[in-house]
Amino acid sequence: MSNPVMSVDLAGVELKNPVVVASGTFGFGREYGQFYDLSELGGICVKGLTAQRREGNPPPRIAETPMGILNSVGLQNPGVDAFIAHELPFLRQYDVKVIANISGNTPEEYGEMCEKLADAGVDLIEVNISCPNVKAGGLAYGTRPELAAEVTGMAKAHAGRVPVMVKLSPNVTDITEIARAVADAGADALSLINTLRGMRIDVNTRRPILKMNTGGLSGPAVLPVAVRMVWEVHNAVSLPILGMGGVSDGDSAAQMMLAGASAVAVGTVCFADPYAPIRVRDGLRDIAGRQGLDHVSQLTGGVRPW
Amino acid sequence: MKVETQCKVLEMAQLTSGGWSMTVESHGIAQQISAPDQFLHIKCGHSHLLRRPISICNWSAQRDLIRLVFEVRGEGTQWLSRRKVGDSLDVLGPLGNGFSMEAEKRYLLVGGGIGVPPMLGCAVHGSGHCTAVLGFRSAGNTMLLEEFEKACTGGVRLATDDGTLGHHGFVDALVRQELEKHPGEYDGVLACGPKPMLKSVAAVCAQLDTPCQVSMEERMGCGVGACLVCACKNTQGHYVHVCKDGPVFPAQEVDWNE
Question: ipTM of the predicted structure?
């Protein structure tokens, strides 16, 4: 049993451990900060930001599914300026990397947000080109390689020294095609997967549970899809990967890293267990320790395919 | 710091065909309750990812007890109804903001269906000057009536949808009668129940110029305000969240047309 070093490097950003919390599942940290010290985390991907405040979609916005949930929140957020003014100073009290997640209606909007966030001093920018719950932008950029590349280029041009990580959608035939386009356009890292589009219907009323009819599936149910896609992308491009989708314990996090992720994000499972990110971190340390590793990062890409 | 707590079930009783009363040892949660109609977010077995929000019916800080009264609505609450005395529950709470009540003031408590139980907490822990108007589907669905009689100095009035007990019809007619019979005497109306009921009660209160607070319900995720799913539109056109901003809101701040 070794005592592995837990810090990892994600696109030049040193995380004190490989566990990040996923955008949209952790607000701006205030709520779960009432349960434990946020400095325990490697990083926090904040709730998805847009250039202007957004109200989001009408409720119901959530439906429970077998070992997962569908959501259709629709990027409700106070806007990038309010984040910088009111939320970033709160997060800066903690020793944790702040990852700003952004969605734009146009490539120019992505650029403007990157400039503001880089000036404000976030540690990393996660460019969301894969939200299934908004009409403009969102998923449209994430399913067409040339648009994904254009948004990536715009973000890079305006982010200064802050690394840009592009969040990929699983709602495509071949995720490596988008990954290559984004890598060629200069992305510093990739995060995947965003949610899978899904639907649940109440058989008595014959109405979908979600008011938007469809939403994004997340939670333990999507883990195998996410692990497969991380593995495919890791084999296709040489960028570091933040792996997410159903990570709920040390084992699922280790699978994600073995498939090629440098770090993992924990999301939906926080709703069931606020302490899940801490459990995932401790579980990863145990696994790496049992395998006699000096450094948890030695798991990354270590899968031995048949 | 908030904590996740393991609470032992001390008492379990079936009140109606789908209604259950459960008393748990609270491990200090009861001491943190700040107002009636806060809720506990309970893990209902391992086959369900999400917790279930259950409103607090009554509590004793001194005896460290919390009583929950809930209705079996789906698999989660079904699981909860099968707990036995001595079983442990994984609980987050108390969560949310309850009814705001001032000492010495007089309140009309309005409960409909499974919205009835939290109103008992108002009667017991509120001002001590309460009248209750309670609505049920039918005489066979009534619950907690003796306890309301004991706690409400102004008495209890009943309505059933099918007329098998009390007023035949909805509670809003009784709310109107009560407010018109005692003009200016009620400092506020507090209501919990299905949204159409809350909407009509809010309309009666607005018309008769009586302040009204309502407890809203929406499909919930995290229960603490992080996931933003339990959205409720306010009159400014903004979505607020039932778990963190509510569940209780001033009735005039709710967009009833949403």
Answer: 0.92
